[in-house]
Amino acid sequence: MKPFYLLLINTVIANITNMTVWFAIIFFAYLETEKVLATGIISGLFLVSVSVTGFWLGSLVDKYKKKMLMLFSGLFSLVIYAIALFIYLIAPENEFKKIESPYLWILVALILAGVIAGNIRSIALPTLVTSLVPEPDRDKANGLVGMVTGVAFLIVSVISGFLVAFGGMLWVFIFAMTMMVITLVHLWSLKLPEPEIVKTKDGKSQKIDIKGTIRIVSSIPGLFPLIFFTTINNFLGGVFMSLMDAYGLELVSVEVWGLLWGLLSLGFFVGGGLISKYGLGKYPLKSLFTANFALWTIASIFTLQPSIILLCVGMFLYLSVAPFVEAAEHTIIQRVVPVERQGRVFGFAQSLEMSASPLTAFLIGPITQFIFIPFMTTGKGVELIGEWFGTGPDRGIALVFTLTGLIGLCVTFIARQSKYYELLTKSYSREVKHEKEEPDAPKLWN
Known about the structure:
Order of helices and strands: HHHHHHHHHHHHHHHHH
Radius of gyration: 22 Å
Distance between the termini: 10 Å
Number of strands: 0
CATH topology: Growth Hormone, Chain: A
CATH class: Mainly Alpha
Helix content: over 70%
Largest sheet: none
Strand content: under 5%
Number of helices: 17
Oligomer: single chain
């Protein structure tokens, strides 16, 4: 096994650990408070945190060795989860049933800190793809990373629901702390052939250097619009993060929903597997837009009827297509951005792209709770579309999903017709020609 494969295995373990805790706190908060408002706020806090910390974490990735950063993030998460377990155990009985409970939000804040620390991996991993994988195979490597995400979701979705159902957050914390120790021991023993830290000519690799990063992004025709387009997509995607669990739990029990999410997450595995085998084609940007058209078409259809079968089919297709979007964006950035800047550019892109989702998450919970759910329960929606669309709280949430999909289709069509699409395609093609004239990178990918 090559170091890259071993690193992916370690990443699976780490992602399973952090995502299990995060899925669990969302399940736990909704089941305890029975308020969709709680899931909206928690999701919003997560997205705000990712957005705010992306610049800083990206700078750390460029400044230090990746293995050392991953070890530090794992140790930090382990300590935080131990503190969170203590808070959970000392909380008064039934305290978590109140949405205004300080114990609930202290617990959420601690878990959030532990999960965000693990986000260093999501920024460091694509930079390691650039360093360790020859250019012709990077799209396939990015697809393999998508498969890793799918495996993690598959396991997390199954176990988080059962852990919460049968042991509350206690079992979740015990599981997370055990897995984090395994991750740290394995990573410590892993010999990762990292390249030397590369500094820019002005020495700015020692700083966050937002201006320099923006200058690099702006100098590449079409890259800023691509990031902006993804930002709008994430604005709409915040709807899914905020409401999907609430919608699923309206249809089935938490145990069934956790099991279903596990099966549905095979979609990530399928999509990532296709990319790792066949790549993204000659023009990854074209693949990105084709995937977006498919995603939003699915999103506008899969909740048209209150059917768990329709939901499962739609979400499986959605999750199968999603890896193509991320893999395409990563492949483009890895090609057109200098390696010494990639940590900060990936961090910048993450911060900007995720900055829109918190607004959606914070707004969509109250909007759904106080507008769309009443609209489809006792309001005009019952008369207008209730006969064929269905009525009740779950149909209010479903209407939000359908409208979001239609808006996403319109945004994708407008972006595809813009001049920036051709500009970025030309920038990518120029880099392809340039790299063919350079010596190949060390062949660590087989």
